[in-house]
């Protein structure tokens, strides 16, 4: 938020407000004046929210208080309509603010123009502007273009802001509730809508932090039977970033990467998308099938994270794995192959077992109990057992082998064929979902029940066209 002094024609000493780079807004007293665009849906949206009999009334606790539309006459006699609402900054003596744009644009032209490696394209949301004592980023000011920054910088901004704000379970829950509310509105598209966060930086003030859903100029109603999933996914991401910034110990995040059909000549583009999207994760186990597509897709991510890849034949059919080293070439040192030969299980000792040792033990048990040696191809539910074992091994390794410093590496990434990833999703969450090829779906462990998983996002990157 940047302000400058301005004298309005009505004689009030006001400030023209720039929120995340938007011009034309005025603060007059404890109210905010926002110019009304002729084609904007925003006035209609606010008026519907005020009506107790309208379905949009459910949004009222989450949006600024609406005061109506007023006309303001300029010094040269031109009248302009302004939407008037509560000034969200008024209760704070020294506010710290952040505007987070949520959701991908539905306009195909606008979506096609997104920078391919930018956070808006890969994650579906971005920080449009932030102003605190520790950092200032204003969209299109001094080289900062929010939608084009890396996923890593986006994560850093979010973490820094929410750590400075301090823990607020209420606001985290409000974001989660907004996500659930939006699921009840099929056909509504919330393009360019923002979450606006505010907290008090003055230690002498006790004003609690707040969060509002704002900017409804581009809201549209369509005949679609689906809600605005990109916006819902964005809200889930924001809620998770709040949780990560405030929790004492990170929850496990599971990334399921679904392979697509043959995409001749485009494997490099797809693997780069995946690497850019997952390059900020804190993985200590990355497991992939031994197919050529999986192996080639995972190499850029392995290099970026500096984590070895565990090649798991149980995630596909147990075909001959001869030639894997040839496929990997100079990257073979970045991989470990599962030992499927019969071996005695290593006894537990006080010494740390490596993650790979634990995985081998878990996988050998899975093979003994769930795989028929005569079978040419295991069934989907049997492959799912491998997914379960991976998660269990991940948990055991984290519990027994990681100190506080290493505990930061808690994520699990699995590369596999679409049908295997679909089976894993169906097993881990009760909600039926349809996954798409060449996409990433993200699950996070429930904060209270470790056996439950919550969907954070579905089919990320699925909107990207293969070049």
Describe this protein's structure:
The chain has 467 residues and is an alpha+beta fold. The chain has twelve helices and 20 strands. Helix 4 packs across helix 6. The chain is elongated and about 75 Å long. The two termini are 38 Å apart. The N terminus is likely disordered.
Helices, strands, pairings?
Layout: E1 2-7, E2 13-19, E3 22-28, E4 31-35, H1 42-50, E5 66-73, E6 79-86, E7 95-102, H2 108-112, H3 119-122, E8 125-131, E9 136-138, H4 151-165, H5 169-182, E10 188-191, E11 194-200, E12 210-214, E13 218-221, H6 229-246, E14 253-259, H7 267-278, E15 283-288, H8 292-305, E16 309-311, H9 324-328, E17 335-337, H10 355-370, H11 380-401, E18 411-417, H12 418-428, E19 439-445, E20 453-460
Parallel strand pairs: 14-18, 15-16, 15-18, 16-17
Antiparallel strand pairs: 1-2, 2-3, 3-4, 4-6, 5-6, 7-8, 7-11, 8-9, 10-13, 11-12, 14-19, 19-20
Helix pairs in contact: 4-6, 5-6, 7-8, 10-11, 11-12
Main traits of this protein?
6-stranded antiparallel sheet, disordered N terminus, 467 residues, 7-stranded mixed sheet, 20 strands, 12 helices
Offer a quick outline of the entry.
It contains 12 helices and 20 strands.
Mean of residue pLDDT?
Answer: 75
For the biggest sheet, the summary is:
7 strands, mixed
Going across the biggest sheet, name each strand in turn. Answer: 17-16-15-18-14-19-20
- Helix proportion: 25-40%
Shape: elongated
In whole angstroms, how far apart are the ends? Answer: 38 Å
**Structural classification:** alpha+beta
What is the number of helical segments per DSSP (H or I, 4+ residues)? Answer: 12
Find the count of extended strands (DSSP E, 2+ residues): 20
- Uncertain segments are 1-21, 317-322, 338-360, 362-379, 401-407
Q: What percent strand? A: 25-35%
